[in-house]
């Protein structure tokens, strides 16, 4: 992974966004904007930071990744297909039948998925168990989690934050998708999160605030973890909800909205959108 350059990561993130837009339009379903905001983070994790083997998804020494904001799974499905966990043609099956391998929230039946998520507030608690298991078994894998900022209103996250600090799981890295929007309104109009970094520090975590769309910032920040021995790490990644789709950027109504086929076709050339070829 170390030889991957910035341009390749940017290209991967761009493909994630194209896949998200195409899949959601095809299915007429999905949380598109929440997926677009995490494309750069996922591209950096899977192309540069994490250690894993897509041909051996249960390799004991792999780094683990949990998408706690499971509704953003369009982006996760795309990156898993790009790095070889499954054939990219499977993306055609997103939310298209009852027993699809790619439902509206990720499930462990799909290679590369570590935990069923979507009921918000559970990703960090699950990750703590995985991180503690690594410590107990003397294994050096890390556990990465992406959580939504609106999701932080769930009290289970803060209970978990206390436990993680107590047990000194410095192999746990939480990335907050800080796009400042959630279903229905701005996060600060629903439940005040700021000062968010200070709150995590008060719970005993090492912290950093970054630009979640700057690949250099992502690489340097993720590569430097843990920031303090014996402390779990939280990275607050400032992002734009709907990033890459101008009509959706920073728009509250796009939390669970997708392009119509007519809108897709109208934007296709301008955004360089593409569909999977038959095969």
From TrEMBL:
InterPro entries attached here?
Answer: THDP-binding (IPR029061), Transketolase_N (IPR005474)
* Top-rank lineage group of the source organism: Bacteria
**Chain ranges of the Transketolase N-terminal domain:** 11-274
- Which SUPFAM superfamilies does the record cross-reference, listed alphabetically? Thiamin diphosphate-binding fold (THDP-binding)
Q: Which Pfam families match?
A: Transketolase_N
- What is the designated name of this protein? Thiamine pyrophosphate-binding domain protein
């Amino acid at each position: 992974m170390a030889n991957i350059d910035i341009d390749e990561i940017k290209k991967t993130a761009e493909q994630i966004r194209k896949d998200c837009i195409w899949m959601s339009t095809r299915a007429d379903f999905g949380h598109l904007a929440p997926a677009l905001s995490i494309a750069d983070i996922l591209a950096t994790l899977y192309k540069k930071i994490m250690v894993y083997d897509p041909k051996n998804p249960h390799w004991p020494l792999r780094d683990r990744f949990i998408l706690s904001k499971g509704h953003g799974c369009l982006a996760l499905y795309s990156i898993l297909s790009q790095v070889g966990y499954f054939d990219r043609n499977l993306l055609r099956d997103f939310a298209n039948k009852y027993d699809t391998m790619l439902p509206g929230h990720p499930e462990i039946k799909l290679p590369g998925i570590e935990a069923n998520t979507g009921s918000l507030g559970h990703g960090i608690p699950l990750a703590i168990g995985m991180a503690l298991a690594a410590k107990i078994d003397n294994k050096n894998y890390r556990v990465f989690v992406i959580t939504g900022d609106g999701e932080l209103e769930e009290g289970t996250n803060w209970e978990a934050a206390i436990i993680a600090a107590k047990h000194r799981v410095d192999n746990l890295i939480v990335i907050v998708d800080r796009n400042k929007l959630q279903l229905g309104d701005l996060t600060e109009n629903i439940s005040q999160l700021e000062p968010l970094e200070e709150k995590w520090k008060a719970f005993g975590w090492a912290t950093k605030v970054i630009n979640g769309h700057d690949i250099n910032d992502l690489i340097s920040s993720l590569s430097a973890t843990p920031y303090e021995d014996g402390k779990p790490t939280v990275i607050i990644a400032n992002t734009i909800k709907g990033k890459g789709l101008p009509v959706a950027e920073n728009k509250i109504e796009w939390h669970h909205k997708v392009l119509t086929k007519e809108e897709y076709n109208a934007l296709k050339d301008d955004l360089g959108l593409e569909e999977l070829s038959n095969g």
